[in-house]
Design brief:
The protein is mainly α. The protein has six helices and four strands. It starts with a helix and ends with a helix. The relative contact order is 0.23.
Length: 135
Amino acid sequence: MNRDAIAASVQEVYNWIDAEVANNTAACDACGKCCNFQAYDHRLYVTSPEMIHFTANVTDPKPMTKGYCPYLHEGKCTVHPFRFAGCRIFLCNGDSDLQSSLSEQALQKLKNICEKFDIEYYYTDLKTALNKNQS
């Protein structure tokens, strides 16, 4: 498995998402509310190529033991450059139709990465993905 090539392909998807969000919706105010999944009644889902990208860039992945992202510290994301597609797309003050459309397009791009590199595709909640990475 060429982890570097997979990570680079995921980064291209992230760059596309960032550009789409910047051109089409309100900016994130970095309040950290949506990272507290339990309080916000929100779940973040990630894909297998995203986890490859994440673990290629974050050398000490943390398990998720509470109802919020383990990378949320004092209301700020400590892995912001490597955050997942859902983190990039979902904004508290964003347009839900646009977010839904971007999510579907991003998932297709991530599935295409799996096909290109012949890796298993999975789509699972962040807690499961991070905790699986610990075993």
